[in-house]
Specification:
By secondary structure, the protein is α+β, with helices and mostly antiparallel strands. It has one domain: Alpha-Beta Plaits, CATH 3.30.70. Helix content is 33%, strand content 31%. It has a 4-stranded antiparallel β-sheet with strand order 2-3-1-4, with helices on one face. It is elongated. 16% of the residues are buried. The model has no long low-confidence stretch (mean pLDDT 86).
Length: 95
């Protein structure tokens, strides 16, 4: 039985950039990195499908799991070089 989640992401803010000593990405770069994140999530073994709408990514899993477990599985995608492009906001089950 699959489970659906909504992953919410936000663009880097000036405050984030000041703390991490990096530059704010151009909006086209942000979009490119989010599209790449969707592709990367599709390669995660538990993920059956992922689709982006704005700053949200709908994720469907192959088998049931809790939102926090999925968060732990995808956490590496928020701690690599792309982390300077976007930030994790939340992950919630979707009805």
């Amino acid at each position: 039985m699959s489970v659906k989640f909504e992953l919410r992401i936000r663009a880097l803010t000036q405050s984030d950039a000041d703390r991490s000593k990096c530059f704010l990405p151009e909006s086209c770069e942000y979009e490119m990195y989010l599209d790449a994140l969707v592709d990367d999530l599709r390669a995660v073994p538990i993920v059956a499908a992922s689709h982006r709408t704005g700053n949200s990514i709908d994720i469907e899993t192959h088998s049931p799991l809790e939102a926090m477990d999925l968060r732990d599985i995808i956490k590496p995608h928020f701690s690599n070089e792309r982390f300077v492009q976007y930030r994790f906001v939340s992950i919630l089950p979707k009805q």
